[in-house]
Design brief:
The chain is α+β, with helices and mostly antiparallel strands and about 425 residues long. The protein contains six helices and 19 strands. The chain has two domains: about 1-150, Immunoglobulins (Immunoglobulin-like); about 270-410, no CATH class.
């Protein structure tokens, strides 16, 4: 792989600590798109039992460029650093490193992919804190990646590349034209098994509903085998909508999972896609009528015009509502689309939380001032799910009923809540 760098500095430091546990830090910026100009993506692949590799993809349009000294070209300078922890609850940094790069704008790349190796022993789980920093703009993007080396069957023991783009694949969500090359790190593997699941999942119930949600069924709708080529790679298209779970051994539940919802995901491009999230703020009759309408786009337009009073005001409210839906798809997609999830539901109706605390097992969201009795607190528990590590269920309670209807009524009056 070509590394777009004129300078590369690796600084390793292990065994140091931080003053505050990550679990005690407000991480609400993770769910606020405007918190940084840069939006890098990360992927981890376990090279061996002791070494793992971090891939970082950056959109070059998000850099600040300038000419330095006698340099006739516009360049960007940035660094990628990481800290490895055992969990959100730990203060101890197990491993850390930083790499500095310079990119020449004349190369004309829309995307740069860099990689850094780090030490992580199996069988263990870790948390990787990654910080990408634009040295000229002096702005950073800080994110977290779960590291799972619990067994050799976990998803990070599979290297995945896009055959069309000829680069590392960063997105578990696939589209109809994607062709992925999947290579397990395990040697002497001649075939893999693919479990296919339908994606017809119901949306989340309101936060005050004590009705028991339908349990996720992990029994696949079909099972088939794929054969590795001489290079130990499987090429897969996955053009049918659904969930694809690749496994080396079906006795275990672990494996590599891809999700195909529709080709434009996470964006909303059809009236049908726009109707679904409206269920959170419509009556059952309104929703049923929209779904049955011959002209669904007109039905959606009529709904928004009716509640906002005029088309111009309606456009502003529509933009805010569906921006939240698309952001929910980006942040909270797991085995189901992000807008259908518990976190997605709360995010769409209430907006981005003011305070977010994360630990190894849950997330806590606060709307309002922390410690204020009138503030809203939502607790989400991370559910063990073989298809994803992003399955979080809301701890529901009748106490949310008043605030829910207050938020829904605001939307129905054409007010962005």
């Amino acid at each position: 792989m070509r590394v777009f760098a004129l300078a590369l500095i690796i600084i390793a430091a292990a065994g140091c600590g931080t003053s505050t546990k990550l679990s005690n830090q407000n991480l609400s910026y993770l769910y606020y798109k405007g918190s940084s100009i840069m939006h890098p993506e990360y992927q981890v692949y376990h090279v061996s039992d002791t070494v793992s590799r971090l891939y970082c993809s950056i959109n070059t349009d998000e850099f600040l460029y300038s000419k330095d000294g006698d340099n006739q070209y516009f360049t960007a300078a940035y660094s990628i650093s990481y800290k490895l922890f055992s969990s959100f609850e730990s203060k101890v940094v197990i491993d850390s490193s930083s790499a500095t790069f310079v990119y020449n704008k004349s190369e004309g790349r829309r995307q740069i992919i860099n990689r850094i190796d780090f030490k992580a022993h199996s069988p263990n789980t870790y948390l990787l804190e990654v910080n990408t920093y634009d040295l000229k703009r002096k702005q950073s993007a800080r994110m977290f990646v779960n590291i799972d080396k619990g067994s050799k069957y976990t998803r990070q023991y599979f290297k995945v590349d896009s055959k069309i783009k000829k680069q590392t694949n960063f997105d578990p969500v696939v589209h109809g034209k994607d062709v992925l090359e999947i290579k397990p790190v395990m040697k002497d593997v001649s075939k893999m098994y693919v479990k296919y699941f339908d994606i017809n999942f119901a949306i989340s119930l309101p936060p005050f509903s004590m009705q028991e949600a339908k349990k996720v069924r992990y029994r696949p709708d079909s099972l088939y085998e794929v054969t590795l080529n001489e290079e130990g790679i499987v090429e897969s298209t996955m053009d049918k909508k659904g969930i694809y779970h690749f496994q080396i051994d079906t006795i275990t539940r672990e494996g590599l999972t891809f999700f195909h919802y529709y080709n434009d995901f996470p964006r909303l491009t059809t009236a049908n896609q726009m109707i679904g999230p409206l269920r959170y703020i419509t009556t059952k009759q309104e929703f049923t009528e929209m779904m049955a309408a011959d002209n669904k786009k007109q039905a959606v337009d009529d709904f928004w015009i009716n509640i906002t009073g005029n088309p111009d005001r309606g456009k502003k409210v529509i933009k805010r509502f569906y921006t939240r839906v698309q952001d929910a798809n980006r942040y909270f997609t797991s085995y189901l689309e992000g807008w259908k999830s518990d976190r997605g539901m709360i995010y769409i109706v209430y907006g981005a939380p003011d305070v977010v605390y994360k630990n190894s097992f849950s997330e806590n969201w606060i709307y309002g001032e922390e410690g204020n009795l009138v503030s809203l607190n939502f607790a989400f528990v991370n559910v063990l799910n073989p298809l994803t590590d992003k399955d979080f269920k809301l701890d529901r309670s009748p106490i949310y009923k008043n605030s829910w209807y207050l938020a829904v009524d605001a939307w129905r009056q054409g007010i962005v809540y």
